[in-house]
Amino acid sequence: xxxxxxxxxxxxxxxxxxxxxxxxxxxxxxxxxxxxxxxxxxxxxxxxxxxxxxxxxxxxxxxxxxxxxxxxxxxxxxxxxxxxxxxxxxxxxxxxxxxxxxxxxxxxxxxxxxxxxxxxxxxxxxxxxxxxxxxxxxxxxxxxxxxxxxxxxxxxxxxxxxxxxxxxxxxxxxxxxxxxxxxxxxxxxxxxxxxxxxxxxxxxxxxxxxxxxxxxxxxxxxxxxxxxxxxxxxxxxxxxxxxxxxxxxxxxxxxxxxxxxxxxxxxxxxxxxxxxxxxxxxxxxxxxxxxxxxxxxxxxxxxxxxxxxxxxxxxxxxxxxxxxxxxxxxxxxxxxxxxxxxxxxxxxxxxxxxxxxxxxxxxxxxxxxxxxxxxxxxxxxxxxxxxxxxxxxxxxxxxxxxxxxxxxxxxxxxxxxx
Length: 418
Ligand code: ADE
What we know:
Bound molecules: adenine
Helix content: 40-55%
Shape: globular
CATH class of the largest domain: Alpha Beta
CATH topology of the largest domain: Rossmann fold
Oligomer: single chain
CATH architecture of the largest domain: 3-Layer(aba) Sandwich
Largest sheet: 8 strands, mixed
Structural class: alpha/beta
Strand content: 15-25%
CATH superfamily of the largest domain: Adenosylhomocysteinase-like
Number of helices: 17
């Protein structure tokens, strides 16, 4: 069995941490029980480019229970939990190719290792597998029946590929499921981003000017949690509707240049490139902290920051101090990579339970339906989405009402008014 992990001896610790995550993933547990009986993924090879975390470990167990052979590479050079990677290899016999802190060359060589197994299904977080496959036709094997995509950034890339009529197999956009983005992007990113910033810096959030760039579901979550910890939250947004929403949610909204002068802590969650640029770094206060929680490390113009700096040093793990020519210091967290996974452990298991339930059930759906699907990006079927919500509520011990026959009829009618 091929693999490349940091240290296989870390497997004992990894197994315990995966067990801890699993205790908080009741929906995946139910799916696993059914998969063990029905084996819906029997004979399929799944190449998964995901953050190698305890939660991904639980998903791998579920996919294997369904009969799949699983091969994993990292979806970010800094997000791998090396003990989890070791445990997956040793205890679950999953081929893992990922090491925390790997350089870009190793990152892509690991992606290639996962693709060399000729997968039937690709599972992406950020679309690097699909992008690699589409740029190197040698990887476009006949056996690929479809794929799934976890994240907003990946779905944007895939839709761009599809709009050029270049997408070569169907993909299910897991991110578009309500049980994914309403919870993972909002509550998951909200909590884990603040967690990453605190673990990296141990700074007090209360009373700080906390700047959130982007007011999508991730930005909403981060802003909400920063506010909850007592920060004065400023939102940067280019979309008028979202900006208005931020205003009415009680946040100050202003252009990035204005916020640059007053912010203490900055987080980008836009999915776009060069959101905080050289001119913004130039305007920042001494001691400003800049971080990113979007998928790729492109949201901060790090080259621009380097050009302004006369020196830099790593002052704490995941904290790089850049001293500008006039002596001001700017602190860059986690090399501008997603701080929630670089300095913390990513989203809590309880929320990944729903995201990865969508992954497992979408893989099953693909296995059963790929012949009917076109080379397009598909949403997760509503039935799957609602079922995951039902199972999650049940696991939380929450009961809800059902419509009475009269209410059902009323909702299907148009005659009755005041
Ligand atoms: N993305 C964000 N948090 C994650 C986690 N805990 N595991 C896998 N992918 C993630």
